[in-house]
């Protein structure tokens, strides 16, 4: 029996980490990478170069593959409908991770809890919405944003003028109320085409300048009832939208204890930064699970292996080559696991992450942060 071929669009760190799980399962990855220096190209032999917008390149990597999947959402959706192999998640589902306005509309249609929102294209429309919900507001570009890009918090209408004036004919922005949340949560689950779904423990995410910095799993001080509600909400979204593969539902938690409310923030239909802790912290990692799901194989156990875990992102470094600090960093905590993505250093860029597994997620985070600080050239806390 020949190895099943999974074609992947996108050559960043997510596909790079998917390769490790593919190795274990004997799955052949064929990844469309942006350049031969891309993170995945460094570890995946079958990595033709091409842009995610290049339909011919996508068609070529799909030839002979059992399935096509993605490590980011920035792909030509309508073209995907023309391919002769399964596309997972399907274009009709992927749309809701690509377009935030469409996502808000379908969440309303499903009865999922949304923050108050409006589609705006003029200062007058924005002013009307601001009068209803108050300032500050969050503005988002409907497509193309990630890691804090395409998101603007405004405290006055004047702060939105540049974005509004840049809109073309027929273009608009998503305006949302600025939710006063207690925590940001991430519900990570996987669903296979036959309908089987498995959910990992709900995690808490902590942001730095709009980019995920720390993930604590399970989310500390989250009641079992709220965690169950969050997971059921994620399962409902996956089922109703017919999502296949890994789905991450980012949520706001408002309030305390069992009475806390949940609001959907954003969706991602692929392995997600909030799930990197699962590599060491869960019986089945999100990357293995994604491959299982898109190939419609039985899903793995999502239980934690040691009670809790924490992941801290390596966001930029004072070193031109952070691996120079390995002798000190690896000695600082022999139980810490370093994942380096092979990217060039620039301020704030996701260069890697460090995970620590143990009985207490906050203590795990402290230990992981110590190692990250060393890799960044900062004095360890």
UniProtKB/TrEMBL annotation:
Residues 104-295 form the ATP-grasp domain. It is an enzyme of class 6 (ligase). SUPFAM superfamilies: Glutathione synthetase ATP-binding domain-like, PreATP-grasp domain, Rudiment single hybrid motif. Its EC number is 6.3.4.18. It comes from the Bacteria. GO terms for molecular function: 5-(carboxyamino)imidazole ribonucleotide synthase activity; ATP binding; metal ion binding; phosphoribosylaminoimidazole carboxylase activity. Pathway: Purine metabolism; IMP biosynthesis via de novo pathway; 5-amino-1-(5-phospho-D-ribosyl)imidazole-4-carboxylate from 5-amino-1-(5-phospho-D-ribosyl)imidazole (N5-CAIR route): step 1/2. The keyword Nucleotide-binding applies. Belongs to the PurK/PurT family. This is N5-carboxyaminoimidazole ribonucleotide synthase. It comes from Winkia neuii.
